[in-house]
Specification:
The structure is a single chain. By secondary structure, the protein is α/β, with parallel strands linked by helices. 27% of the residues lie in helices and 26% in strands. A 5-stranded parallel beta sheet has the order 5-2-1-9-19, with helices on one face. A 5-stranded parallel beta sheet has the order 10-17-11-12-13, with helices on one face. A 3-stranded antiparallel beta sheet has the order 6-7-8. Helix 1 packs parallel to helix 7. The longest helix has 19 residues.
Length: 352
């Protein structure tokens, strides 16, 4: 059985390792645009220079899993075409291309490897007293703003977003806002209309100086599925059945951010369980058994607040918020457990 995995983030790497482990005789090939496994939830640390977010992909995959570095242009009837014209046949395919960032002109995206590297270089070159603007009041924005402020107390950091930390509630939200204040981050409830020439123009009409403007909003998914003729939802995510198979082509599983599972949100807390469920479904099918439906269940929302602080907001299985939360070092440890099952960055974390 030839199995191709497109994308090597959390979902793709986990799926490849799980299939190689569970499906006897499977020939697994991972197609990825770069030879590294990128820990996307560490990109804010990459930017601040406090940690590395990339690991050689070969060190994250089980022995026998092949890699092909390249970009997939289109998925067809049992075959895919790469940007260099090469074709790869498959019996089953796991689509795990993640989500995308659509930055405003004049800003640097923090949700991609290329953007994080550009931001790291730019931040390192900024002299003391410079102004850094982070756009986006969700987890990515909060983590980026606090990490930069913690690592570079000599620069002025501001965070702009509508209802900053609205992803949390009660004491958890207050904890996040207090951490931003403690680190000297200016929080503005506004939006950015334009960023050019060292100035950001707010939706309210104010102009503010900004030597580096970081776009911390992740939205949308790559167009590969739609371009390949698979049915997608309004957000461009693959419409799947209860086993995470494309409703257009049952040979194709979609996992992670690009899978149109109702109620799911972007993040590795979604990616890893979906990859596991889809790989197990294929293993059961290969063994002549009925697969088990995927069940969406969340545990918490975890947000880093600089180098030594974090907050974890407990949720109901449908991701609605509970009142309870963890904070400080306890939340840091809990984040590692919830997101990837163990300390992230290890082989065990991605199913090896």
């Amino acid at each position: 059985m030839k199995v191709v995995v497109v994308g090597a983030g959390y979902a793709g790497t986990f799926a490849a390792n799980r299939v190689a482990k569970k499906v006897k005789g499977a020939e697994v090939t991972v197609v990825n645009a770069r030879p590294e496994f990128v820990e996307r939830i560490r990109l804010h640390q990459q930017i601040a220079g406090t940690a590395a977010a990339a690991t050689p992909l070969t060190s994250m995959l089980r022995a026998g899993v092949r890699t092909r570095i390249g970009t997939v242009e289109k998925i067809g009837d049992g075959t895919l075409t790469l940007d260099d014209g090469e074709s790869i046949d498959f019996d089953h395919l796991f689509l795990a291309v993640g989500s995308t960032v659509r930055p405003l002109a004049g800003t640097v995206p923090v949700g991609t490897w290329e953007g994080a590297e550009q931001a790291r270089t730019a931040l390192a070159a900024l002299p003391a007293g410079s102004a850094v603007t982070v756009v986006g009041g969700g987890p990515t924005g909060i983590e980026t703003a606090t990490e930069v402020a913690d690592a570079r107390p000599d620069v002025q950091v501001r965070l702009i977003g509508s209802s900053v930390a609205a992803c949390l509630s009660g004491g958890a939200r207050q904890r996040a806002l207090a951490a931003l204040r403690r680190l000297g981050v200016e929080v503005l409830d506004d939006g950015v209309e334009e960023a050019a020439g060292g100035v950001v123009r707010l939706r309210s009409g104010r102009d503010l100086p900004s030597d580096l403007t970081l776009w911390a909003i992740v939205e949308g998914v790559p167009e590969l599925a739609a371009r390949s003729g698979l049915e997608v939802d309004a957000e461009g995510r693959v419409v799947v059945d209860e086993y995470l198979r494309s409703v257009t082509d049952g040979r194709i599983f979609a996992v992670g951010d690009c899978a149109g599972v109702p109620g799911s949100r972007f993040g590795c807390q979604t990616a890893a369980p979906q990859a596991r469920a889809a790989a197990d479904a294929l293993a059961r099918l290969a063994g002549g058994r009925e697969p088990e439906p995927y069940s969406l269940r969340y545990v918490a929302r975890c947000v880093s607040l600089g180098r030594k602080d974090a907050v974890a907001q407990f949720t109901h299985p449908d991701d609605s918020l509970k009142d309870g939360h963890l904070k400080g070092g306890t939340a840091v440890a809990f984040k590692r457990i919830v997101y990837v099952g163990t300390k992230y960055g290890t082989r065990k974390a991605v199913g090896a």
